[in-house]
Design the sequence.
């Protein structure tokens, strides 16, 4: 194809979620509430962990970073999706589409590594409690954080290097509400079989491998915990159940979206909404409701903020 490396498509058109104006108004209200609640909840977790000295431990350091990533997940797609519900023609520029894909996959890669780091943190806390602070030192925490961001960047850039050079010479309609690799690749004016396979291997296999590694790790930790019963067992099991729930909520939609060969459009949209809008909020709720220390610290912070406003 002549000029195969030069895209002539300058923007992409989203079909969105529905054509019904009444349903769109309802979705604006619901998604706005979920997005604001997610921003508030995850910001409060970060602020609480930062300001409360009792929460200055490796577990809460990782939790605060997970909340920061959840803010990124919801902000990468939700504002654009909510704004588009007011518009009849929902468009995004070529550069905006590439940027959205970049951030989605960077954030996704970072969260995968953070969840693995949190599983390792719980393993050390339960199996080697006397050496916990030595193993999970500040240096180790920073190592996990740097590894997470490097993994996310490499994971995202490796895929986008090929996508940017694809020829987009005609079709520009995406039956979705956001840009992502599987649907965008199908619009290219060339054979994309190898690239689609690369996306499945990169995003799909990576998600499946991390998911089953984490589940097996948590099963092993729970079995170990049951053999060594103690007064802290119920607290540890509660913490582990929260971690496992978050792992399932994060990896479930991702595995389906990037490994299923011919996904249903409606189911695809539902899982994308769940992943982008609901999961960041549910993560904040799960880690708050299942953690007594976090609940007490957040109540303390809220009281301090209320008292500060009264004084002001």
Sequence:
């Amino acid at each position: 194809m002549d000029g195969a490396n030069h895209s002539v498509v300058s923007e992409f058109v989203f079909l969105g979620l529905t054509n019904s104006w009444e349903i769109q108004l309802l979705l604006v209200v619901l998604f706005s509430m979920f997005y604001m609640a997610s921003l508030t909840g995850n910001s409060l977790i970060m602020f609480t962990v930062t300001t409360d000295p009792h929460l200055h431990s490796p577990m809460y350091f990782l939790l605060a970073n997970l909340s920061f990533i959840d803010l990124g997940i919801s902000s990468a797609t939700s504002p654009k999706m909510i704004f588009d519900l007011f518009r009849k023609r929902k468009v995004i520029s070529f550069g905006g589409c590439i940027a959205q894909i970049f951030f989605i996959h960077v954030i996704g890669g970072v969260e995968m590594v953070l969840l693995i780091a949190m599983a390792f943190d719980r393993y050390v806390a339960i199996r080697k409690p006397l050496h916990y602070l030595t193993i999970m030192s500040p240096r180790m925490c920073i190592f996990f954080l740097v590894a997470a961001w490097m993994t996310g960047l490499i994971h995202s850039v490796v895929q986008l290097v090929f996508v940017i050079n694809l020829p987009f010479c005609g079709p520009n309609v995406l039956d979705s509400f956001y840009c992502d690799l599987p649907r965008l690749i199908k619009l290219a004016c060339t054979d994309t079989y190898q690239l689609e396979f690369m996306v499945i291997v990169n995003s799909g296999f990576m998600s499946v491998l991390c998911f089953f590694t984490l589940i097996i790790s948590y099963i092993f930790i729970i079995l170990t915990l049951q053999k060594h019963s103690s007064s802290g067992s119920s607290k540890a099991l509660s913490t582990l159940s929260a971690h496992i729930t978050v792992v399932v909520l994060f990896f479930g939609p991702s595995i389906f979206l990037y490994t299923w060969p011919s996904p249903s459009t409606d189911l695809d949209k539902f899982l994308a909404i769940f992943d982008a809008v609901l999961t960041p909020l549910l993560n904040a709720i799960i880690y708050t409701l299942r953690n007594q220390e976090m609940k007490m610290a957040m109540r303390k912070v809220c009281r301090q903020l209320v008292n500060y406003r009264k004084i002001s």
User: Anything to note?
Assistant: The mean pLDDT is 85. The chain is about 75% helix and 5% strand.
